[in-house]
What we know:
The complex is a heterodimer. Chain A is an alpha+beta fold. Chain A has five helices and ten strands; from the N terminus they run αββββαβαβαβαβββ. The longest helix of chain A has 17 residues, at 2-18. The N and C termini of chain A lie far apart (51 Å). In chain B, strand 8 and strand 9 form a beta hairpin. The interface between A and B is medium-sized, with 26 and 23 residues.
Amino acid sequence: MTKYIFLFLMTSLTFLLGCGDPTLKDASKVDNTKPVNAAIDEEKLIIQGVESPEDPRTLDNPTYTIAPTSRLLLRFGAFLKSSDSILSEQPILLRLMISDTDVTAGIKNLQTCPILKNWMMYATWNLAHPRKHGNWGTPGGDIDFADCLTALSSDDPALKNPEEKDFCAAKNAVCYNLNNFFANFVRARNMDFGLAVINQTQAPANIFGKSTMNGAVLFWRKMKY
Amino acid sequence: MIRMFIILLIAPLFVLAAPVTQNPTKVGNGDDGADLENLQKITTGVLVTSKEKASQLLEKMNVRSVQYLGALPDDLQKSDMYLSMQTIETPKTFDAGLEKSDDGKNVYARTMPTPVAAVRFFPSALTLTEDQLVRLHIHESLHHTLPESIRENESAVSEITLAVCSPQSSRDQIEMTVKKYMDAVKPAVSASLPSTAATITLQAPVEPSYTEKIQEPSSVTYGYQSFNLSAEDHFLNPVTSLQTLQSYLHPWGGPNSAFGIGLAFSWISLANQSYMGPMEISARLRLATWRKFDIEVFGQHSAMTMSAEELKRLPSMRDTSTIGISIRREAEYFYTENYVSYTEGNDKGVTVGGVGYNQNYAPITDTHISVGGKLKGFFLGGTFDFLLTESPVLSGTSYSDSADRERVRVVKAGPEIGYNGKNFVTTIYYRALIDSTPGYNLSDMADLMGQGSGQGYAGATVSFKF
């Protein structure tokens, strides 16, 4: 009899183990996403009073000074191309690296704002591009100031996952959540004229350019396949 | 029955052909055509050696540089010679000049008054000395190449022949002799200036014959252009001035055609620097002159010589290839030219700040008219160019022109004034943008050497022709 009871118990245990994790977790909380990083493609500083589109201060510099009279235009080629695979309900982050010793002021003063007109690397304070109708509507760039983003704080809900938290916790990093920009411009209008980094205070801030290892980087998530 | 039908069909042909075979053919002045029988092409002998000496004499006297005689050496070399097997007597109405024997009985040679016409020699010519034959060759070629108004005037042709062949002669004397006869013709025409059809008919012989128009097709030209740029042009094409040195040589061709190849180098100036601009290679072929209009085809390729770094500052510069056809009329008191050219479309890449862009240019069609008046070497005229193309499209990694490609017109026009000297031409001109599709100007053509830049340009050229 004992022999039969033992055989029954062993068979039952085998079935139970074959059914999987005995802890029975919530399937919706399983992370099936994969983080993606994308470096900046286009980066152009426009400076009030500088008319030459190839002024050495505006291109390929290790650092750029952002002040009321100088703005940095950024665009990520990968954004539009990857639009379909980006998970828009997950945080979409932009990280800039401040080259100043006093990072706090930079974090406080820098904003990123959607650009409303197509531009190219020949852009200047007055011109978005040199072709027909190339002037900015407003000198300094056609910028959507109403939708400007401020830096995320370290306890922002967007940074609850370890990967996002690590991405923005890098030294001298300042992060922005681009979910609204992505939803309103990239996905809704299939349009990406990029973002302008502006500083409307009198305290200039310096950020690293893409020619260094600390240039602007995007973070988003896509589904694992 | 069928045979009868064929005979009836063929019989009228014999009837119609009969007058042709029975009557003598009239050729030239007083020619009864008898000498056209038994012709033999001359390839050796004293007539050939004397022809070579005549050719050497023409080169020695530099008659190519004498007005109205430029085509004479080529004509002499290219005209074929035939020997007639029978001696013919001089017709009573035949004013043959040097072409008949001293006793006036026999004709030495005959030809037609058209360029490179064959020359028929008669056995009596073989009795002449070599010097006499040299004169005879030159005399016959003068009948081919002199202006129509005097080429059949025996005394004029004889005197010019003597001016060329006389041991004491010089190039200037030859020129004076030709000028004497040409001047004698011109006043006669000027005196009858009332505007009648007859006057127009009379004026025609005074105009240079087509062989003269291609006497000096080669040239070395220096040109300077200063561009009128707007603020936007200062970026798209910031070239403020362009200097060009062009050498156009026409080593090929004959009395009524010329084919030449030209090379042009340019030097461009920007606001704060200067360097080599585009280099151009071109070819021009004068096909023919029909009803006094010169028909020419031409092609040119302009290539950038600048580095990628220098080209960044010149977004509207590219390599261009153009072909066209020109119709030109040079009369005594006016000139006019129409041409149509086609510049092919192409792509040009440029990298700025590590970002690559591609500019796609559409083909350009240029319809050109120029017209002007001439007096004593001076000329004053104007030109009009209608350029038709499509807007260039720029695309990059993330950037592309959002607007659709649209049809673009650019119209430029302006005056020109200059002096056409014996061996040089100097011109001053201005071209202004007089109309265009809004937002476009000459810079959008991206053809600096061909169409200029900005809102227009002023320029000057000095050309030495030979």
